[in-house]
Structures
1.
Amino acid sequence: MIEVEFNYEYDGRIYKMKVEKTKDAYLITFDETTYTVNATEIKPGYLKIKLGDKIIKAVISEGNESKFVFLNGNVYNIRRAISKGRKIEKEDEILSPISGKVVKVEVKEGDRVKKGDVIMVIEAMKMEYLIKAPYDGIIKKIYFKKDEQIDMGVKPVEIEKEEGSKK
Amino acid sequence: MFKKILIANRGEIAIRILKACQEMGISTVAVYSDADAYSPHVHLADEAICLGDPSPLESYLNIPKIIDAAIETNAEAIHPGYGFLAENADFAYACREAGIKFIGPEPEVIELMGDKIAAKKKMEKAGVPVIPGYHGERQENDFLVKQGKKIGFPLLVKAAAGGGGKGMRIVHSEEELEEAIEGAKREAKSSFGSDVVFLEKYLDKPRHIEFQILADEHGNTIHLFERECSIQRRHQKIIEETPSPVMTPELRKKMGEAAVKAAKAVGYTNAGTIEFMVDGSLNFYFMEMNTRLQVEHPITEATTGIDIVKWQLRIASGEKLTLKQKDVSQRGHAIECRIYAEDPANGFLPCSGILTKVEPPVGPNIRNDMGIETGMEVTAYYDPLLAKLIVSGENREDAIDKMIWALSNYVVLGITTNISFLKEVLNHEAFRKGEITTHFIDTHFKDLFAAKEIPFEALIALSVYDAMHAKPVRKEITALPTSDPYSPWKRVGKWRIGD
């Protein structure tokens, strides 16, 4: 018998799964319930799973950082959770929402900005996206110039938050 | 008929045109940028010419490079597809100068219709109704702001040379107006090379309904009925259908006649589309003419049985339109969904990455026009349209059910797509009832974006998959510092093989 545990992360939540493989079934424990399923991988990535009188048909493929599960026309992008409760500080971050070209930088280093002020304009696939200040502050550093390429999830500028500013 | 043509486009539309050529026995030349070297359209063509650098200006928008490619390969004609150079009059002029047939209308007509201001004036003269607005030449921000106040809010700021929602802003109040004008000008400049904008009244319960036109070079012009294209996000269509649920035989006749009149007024030739806005009281206004093949042309093909691309080729080679208006009829109902690499939950922002698995739905009356395949990389250089899914049924209800089935069986993994979102729209009660306007997505935002929990079946499927693929390894190997830090075996308690 093999027993393994997986910690999955989806949409900021962690799901703990325990899988035991017996001779002809998988016992999956999740949320204090154990499900007994029969499963076959029909062709690579295509699973047919029998759970009681229910049939689950799923297609799974592996990306670089996560796996994609296709089920009933929906796709779930699931990561392996990192065991040490790593917290993602979302609120205060200012990140480029897209990979594209910087077409306009609206601020200089040292400028004081108010929440909602436009800091940078990024163009991708012929559309413009505005990067706005998430809070009041002072521009400490600008990492990108006009016409430079910026990647998704990269910090375009450093803003020092002003005391007393509300998020 | 031509012996060989060049297709100056990429993705699904290049493939659509390539296949029509193959069926007609026409040799094909594809062009591609470095980023598309392994794209399906390159494989499919008889010859392929590399345009180099992926940036659109250096590749698919580069007129001299494309003309040279056509000359080098002895192509007699160029099909521009849609987007890129399809509505670029300079390109059509360059083709003419090089003695290459441009598959589309004459450059003078593209130029006239491309200038949305001049086009509206022309249509007004021809007796086709137009929307109130400022379509003048003065472009100073102060002046435009004044005009905007006169028209009233909400209003639209649109690029004069625009299309496809690029360089377009909707403005709800005076305070937003100046920034919107600046943004639209900038976007227009970088997309179309011209920053002239105009202002226009925003209609109540507006629908976007367009008419497909076919016109030959011998004075025959017909329409192939309407397409309802009201479901839009970021002012770009995502779901189109025909017939329109709001259409009556009388309105269809009136609008069809207006469309033919509009096309004739400018001496239009080849396939084109007259876009109208229709308000809550079924008044219709000419919005613009798209002087090219339209993304959503397949729904017209599905209901009329007419192959629009083949007619484009025949018309361009000088053949007469043998179809008469009275011979054209519509049967059943067709819907198209545009599959985009974008995240609806994140403001419909485009996504890029590797497609780890692609498997489109197949079945009766399901058509897939695709530019993607498993393993392909989707880059940020071009439009995020991945594929189009077209279904037809005996009636609207039947077509909706089929589309929902098809979307539910459409596997695209590796990149976030709008497939689930499209399904939400089709499943929405208001859509079923045909109560659609161009504001549909904003109006029903809450229903369409309701937060969803992950079903436990997905977690079970993944854990079974992971258990199947987790190979037991020897202890000393797992202890290596280079091993996978996420390996489940790091958290394995006691285990043994066998019982």
2.
Amino acid sequence: MNRGTVIVTAVLCAIGFPAVLWLAFYEAPLADHPALFFNQKIFYFHVPSAFMMFAAVFVCGIYSLLFLRKRKPEHDEIANSAAELGVLFGAVVLVTGSIWGKASWNTWWEWEARLTTALLLWMIMLAYVLVRKYGGPGSERLGAGLGVFAMLDVPLIYLSVHIWRTVHPKTSVVPELEGKMRIAFWVGVATFIAFFVLLIKVRNSLGRAERLLHDVREQAFDAGLLD
Amino acid sequence: MRSLAIVMLVSAWTAVAHAQDGDAPYASPIKDKCFEEIEKDAGWYNELELLFQNQLFFDPRTPAEPRPPGDVPPTHEPDYTSSMRAQCTEEMKRDASFMAQLRSHFDERLSYEFQRQNAGAFTTNKKHVIMAYAAFMMLLVGFLVGMFLRQRKLVAEIERLREDVKRSASE
């Protein structure tokens, strides 16, 4: 684990999260829409979480491709770490989005394109994690295939609000943010990026420990200590 | 003098033609009184506000759904119920400026500036914001604790196996 990166990102998170809360609740004005008002405050970490879910899926997909090509275990470790983060951020997006939906649409869930494709992506990432955990030997390649497949769902989610008629807001919301709303949002995104890097570093060290355990087990097996 | 006579003649003819066409916009004589009644009748006012807030197409000609007999609304009885409601609704139908004025009134009420000034009234929905932040924190803490426990278990397992291998090699 690169200690310098971990320290820098941890410090950024320690400063960034309170700053985002301050900006979102005390600086950013209320949303100018009767269906939003105060519950729009969920936006400041719902959308950055969605960005991080996409980032995790892309990292997983790219390292899965590298693993399939070069068969280096380091690539597989990073893909596996990113997949777990994809599940984490995906869960945050779905749960907070559902609560926000209840507040502004008066329904916990709507089977519309944006929500359904996001749920599909989360399920693919969950499938990746389960395959890696319980798939046994060879699950790395199977998982890598899933990782690449999941990456292809990301543009579909992004464009879903334009392709189909949905109740979810369009992608133009973020570019149209103004003033302190824009500042609060982008500080949130920067903080979540630092948090993502920190988590992937920490999770990767766990992957290395798993590989080390595998090596030690082989030594123990050779010494006749394990069946 | 001659041109003045022509102008007067043309004006008179235009006024008569206009009146015959029936194009003159209708101006309700009781509009102001209706506004007073709407302000006084809280139930009527809230109903109109809800319609405009939800951006529904408000058509005063559409009759309200008849309430089944015995179906009493759960809300408390308003202090004042206007007797002019039907008459005013008729006037809204006829007077386009009446509807425009109503729309403008409710648009102003729902405007950003109004919300900013009355932010306290709109923060009642903080329950969902707290729920969302709590869910975020729980998921995050759950993930971090899970990762910490897995790390601790792995390190303990590695140490134990290393000790076993060392002991076995020394024997």
3.
Amino acid sequence: MLDFPITTFDAEKPLTKKDFASASEVRWCPGCGDYAILATLQRFLPELKVPRENLVMVSGIGCAARFPYYMETYGMHTVHGRAPAVATGLKVMRPELEVWVISGDGDSLSIGGNHTLHAIRRNVNIKIMLFNNEIYGLTKGQYSPASEKGKITKSSPFGSIDEPVNPAAFALGSGSAFFARTVDVNPKHMMDVFRRAHAHQGACYIEILQNCVVFNDGAHEAASNKKTRAQNTIELQHGEPMLFDNGNKGIGFDANTRRPIILDLEKDPSLKEQVVVHDEKDETGSHAWMLAHMTLPEFPVPVGVFKAIESPAYDAELVDTTKSLTSKTKKDLQAIFEAGDVWDVD
Amino acid sequence: MTESVTIAKDTAEKSVSTENRVVIRFAGDSGDGMQLTGTEFTRAAALAGNDISTFPDFPAEIRAPAGTIGGVSGFQLHFASEAIYTPGDTPDVLVAMNPAALKKNIADLRKGGVVIANSSAFTANNLKKVKYEENPLDDDSLDDYRVVPIDMTAQVERALKDSGLSTKEMGRCKNFYALGLMYWMYNRDKARQEEWIRQKFAKKPAIADANIKAFNAGYNFGITTELIGETYEVAPVKMAPGRYRNIMGNQATVLGFVAAAQQSGLPLFYGSYPITPASDVLHGLAKHKDFGVTTFQAEDEIAAMAATVGAAYGGSLAITGTSGPGLALKGEALGLGAMMELPMVVLNVQRGGPSTGLPTKTEQSDLLQALYGRNGDSSLPVLAAASPGDCFHAAFEACRVAVKYMTPVILLTDGYVANGAEPWKIPDASALPAIDVKFGTDPNDYMPYRRDEETLARQWVVPGTPGMQHRVGGLEKDALTGDVSYDPQNHQDMTDNRRLKTEGIANDFPATTVEGDEDADLLMISWGGTYGSMKVGVLRAREQGMKVAHLHLRWINPLPKDTIDVLKRYKHHVCCELNNGQLTQVLRAHSLVDIQSYTKVEGKPLLVQEIVDLAQKYVG
């Protein structure tokens, strides 16, 4: 059996952000949120102490999908929607590689919805990044399955009549054991989320609220703008009470209506006892489900790791089974040729 | 006519005659166990040393309504003491378990052939279901044949009356009764069959016993009945010395893939989605985990193809298998594999089309789809298997070419060879050729798309290799660096490179051989699973004094380099195929020779007689 090369990190030669930038000229529009994501990932990867040759970026089609060309790692720029399936084939045969999938809302949730579902369901240890700008950028401005109803675009001049898909709910419904959301303008937060995803053994679905400056500028303004961020987002921390607006408000839960509620702690500090504690490890899924349905203007947008539960990763199980069988019951080719009734002619 | 079981007859009165070839067709309801009966009788024939060829013919539905024509499941076996290549044009014996089986198949039975009918199923209700006004077993409609009506239900119930089984359970033993009768008729070794029954039903000894009793009841009926006065012997055929087994095409395909993986030292990835008639390849490979085989049941055909591309990028021998509709779905991702110039094999076990078509019937109508079914100038290497045993060699060859030329390869088989069986001379695993694989490991001046001078293949560099990180995808790329490039001349160069690479595969091919008469005026042409019918058809035509030559193609793209020269040696050409003339179109365009087309799109194999009649038209 041929041996695949797998190198270990040379501590004598630490990597820097520059080492992860390829020679290719980056061609996104000026002001595109993708620049920030690229820079953050390039800054983050040296920290992992994973050799560049052991990293593979897999993308589909879209502006986001140009990502692999700009990374000095192995990369596959595949076809629209199919990146999770390509990544699955790669990962099950080469589980020692670290595989990141880069996708947009059209790529991952429209044509690629089925493959996203199954990659998550199988819990293949790949990190899927969803660059959600709620529009089709590369093809110049059609609405996407994540676009709000009524959006006027080139393909919906009278306003779209589609209800959008909820990426978090979709991931959770697919059986996601790790879902996180972050924002392109918050590099520190993005890095924290990437760090968590890297550590998690199993499929990760990471929604990055990303701004398309040309075709859907300001879609995530409320959550992104530094001035309004504190009121409009809530940073999740496992085991910590869900506070936002600089501690002035908290998220409570009304057991009768089974809905989250806003608690005004400035008005009544005693309400602090009723603030829900964020639990990444809620096995019932109902906590993460609640987070998935918290949207503006009623609720602040939750960012951070919604859910992180360790469960057996598909590729690991598959490899374990193949490997253990290979070592235990080694048969020879002639034996399987001669399976069943054979007869000799002299 | 009386059915006698109580009168003992002296078996010495029954004559034994020798036959060179016999064709038996078993037919009954889908639930009647005809496939099992047929397969078991085939095994008996093979183990007795006969050459065999089979043709199972079942409906697409899992269990169609009982007693209807649509629910008839058939199994045809041709066994002989001489070399045979087809399951036979016309059966000599028809075993019909109910009126529907009789109605559907009687027209194919040769005049004077034997009908063994399960008369208990010929009830007024069953006759009405298939629009028989009278019971054909009683009137004179079957006067051209020798009819042997047997009340199998009563016979089996009598044999099993103390078994404790319900009527329904006893009814399910009827197929073994029919099998037992066949064993007697053709003088086969009972003991081996009884042993098989015991093993197969080891977990249900009561059923095993019942089946053995039913089997013997059928056998003994043959001994005592007046209805059949003779038995037959079909002597072993003189096969070349060696070790043999029966093999079906899908089984051979599995072994070919596993062998190629072994000989290349690569782990095998098989990504697939269940589809008739290819699913058995997935099932077969799934059992061989101990050969470093990983099978992946994907969520759909496209995911299977995409995962195959991913596995190939990672350095596995990556294979996906499907049928016609699945190949249609795989087009875009397969084009990606072609653009990325990675090795992979796409197996298409063809079936009746178009669209959902006839899932369990054979056809060879995906040739043009295989050649052209992707956007752009994306022709890929295409080869086809000629017989069940040849599936092994074709599968191995597909893998060899994929890896040597860094290209997807499409392997075409069909339902007929996939499910048909024949004796297979087992190869010596230690004598199989090696498949050389070398991953690129030298980062100095590494250019992802620099090509080998001879093969025009680029290097296979897998993730994990230090200093050779590169990005590839579906966009057109620079002819050397592999970076995205829209440069006009570069696109022309890359298009030329891809085409020349595929054409260069023919450099490995041996000189084309043509069977038949060297000085013939007529060349009959075929490809894929029609090989057997064509070979025997041409043989029979020549026996009748006609001069005919036969060219059978394995590789359709690229065509062998001497194809045009070969074609030009003959005055008349006719290409026979189970589609609307696809290879004919390809050969005419390639050679400008005025090749005629003979087509048949009935979901059935070519008959030997058709080929003889066709040759007659040209050569007379």
4.
Amino acid sequence: MSHVALDPSTDVRAAGTRSNVAIDVIDLVKQFGHNRALDGVTFQVPRGSVFGVIGPNGAGKTTIMRALLDIIRPTSGQAMVLGTPTRNAGPDLRRRIGYLPGELILEGRTSGRRLLAHYADISGPVEAGHVNELAERLGLDLDRPVRKLSKGNKQKLGIVQAFMHQPELLVLDEPTSGLDPLMQQEFLKMVREAQARGQTIFLSSHVISEIQQAADEVAILRDGRIVTINTVDELRTTAIRHLRLVATGIRPTDLAAVLGALEGVTTIECTLTPAGDAEAVATLSGEIAPFVQVISTLQLKDLMLEEPDLEESVLKLYSAPTPPNTAAATT
Amino acid sequence: MTALEDRALNVRRAPLPLFGKVFTDSWRGLLGWALGLAAAAFLYLPLYPSMIGAAGIQDVIDNLPPELIKTLNYDQIGTGAGYAQATLFGLLGFLLLSIAATSWGAAALGGDEESGRLELTLAHGVTRVQVAAARFFAIMVKILALSALLFLLVLLLNEPSQLQIEVGNLLGTSLLFFGVSLLTASASLLGGAWSGRRIGGIAAGAGVAVIGYVFNALGNQSASLEWLHNLSPYYWAFGNNPLSSGANATTIVVFFGLSLLLAAAAALALRQRDIGV
């Protein structure tokens, strides 16, 4: 599967020097027995950007991230992280990465503070006081035994662990899982601040709503293949909007014909309201301007055009027909 | 990127963090095993004077089936050294240390991977070989500590319990005890590293200990089965009654060398594998 570069700036980066690239993955394949978890994944993450991977469970998100950390070795293909091949990469590379596993298992007996101190000992240098600062932002009590922490608080501990040494690259697998909406916002703020400092963030989620505010680019992964890579803005323009309008002086069948003639307007349902008006419910994707021009000729009584639903458009990409011979992948 | 590089760092790091972590995690367990070992020593050894003093104890032993005596290594039980060997070094102490060594070895890599924690450790600035080596040497120190404790306990009870064990022989036997336990731990470390599961480590460690014990017992039964002694680490350690006749230094070195070999194999096995799949 080739990199679908719709963003013109992506081409510029691809042609530029490799040192501007934080993650460079070329035709990555990972086979677990008969199960092809990754089936030729290619993408690049520019330095200083926030790159999201969206996909249903089992699409291969976790497998990509584990390969970047050299926890698993790809069957074929290459992954370069910060200019170094990940295969058998030494500890120096991993000191420059902060990693949050998707299935975070932490030792339970010790306190959060002592656990973080241990991870600080084996990762990049941690600025004094920075751990407290992060814990305070997330409202995390570091002195409680880890086993007594709720799932959300364990997740916060994992996030602090990944961020504390201010690594050049953050690899975060489902970072917002278990966090309440308020903490999700705080986390996204931390991501933006990290980006402002020049750090690169590579993160995954199974729902786009959790990361659409933070990510510059989003790769959509299904069955071990990248379906598309888009900017969030591009996703927004291709996204589906639900619309409902009520017009007078027109019969429902005529209204349906008018709307049906427009490109991007689908699933049109026109009915007669009790007041004798024509009501249309439909979905709109793509450009808005032609639609607005056409409906301006109608005698509108009511119009509602929803926010684009990225979730729905991403789900549509998920459910696109699966190419033959592609087994479902596990993460 | 300057913002990343210009950070003022005031960093204090623990020396040998991976090695030290094993002890901060498991000192309670180590204390428990030490107490168990002390209890075994204080339970068995002070009984010796009353056993040899009691008329008829030799009669009782003589009336036991010879196969049982050979299995339990009770043939030398009439001497202090034979008694300490049969009850403590060869039975309860061996059992305790074999269980401890197997559980530590199996948990160190296989159990840690199975639980999902190893993944996060390996995502940091360490190599897999470092992790395996640190955990192996930590287990070695723990087994050495328990063996040293056993040495001190027997030394302490030697006089009051009228065991008449020579200190040199006691030291050699304690080192053999350390060696055979370390071999068990290394086997379970390798089993865990190779399989990525705790159970793989337990199978390997328990295999070395149990098969060693069983082959020794079978080899004791008849000349035609004596060849089984060659395959029994238990026999290598205790077959020549080291408490009374002295320990063989070469055997101690062999135990240590084999253990290092198994630990190196564990590190290599861990290095080759996908973790947590």
